[in-house]
Specification:
single chain, mainly alpha, 434 Repressor (Amino-terminal Domain), 69% helix
Length: 64
């Protein structure tokens, strides 16, 4: 599940939700919704921004 993968990678990189949102150029509330599963259909653009902030490829993020 994408939400769990993002959360695990964020914790692995030891960054807060606020910091990941800032680095990805998305709002904190958007990241919270994605990580909690409330937004289970984020745009590819948003997912790509998160992957870039985590320094991984989009493919790595999506495949978990």
């Amino acid at each position: 599940m994408l939400a769990q993968t993002i959360k695990e990678l964020r914790k692995k990189h030891k960054i807060s939700q606020e910091e990941l949102a800032r680095q990805a150029g998305i709002t904190y509330s958007t990241l919270i919704k994605i990580e909690s599963g409330a937004n289970d259909n984020p745009t590819i653009k948003t997912i790509k921004k998160i992957a870039t902030a985590l320094k991984i490829s989009l493919d790595e993020l999506v495949r978990g």
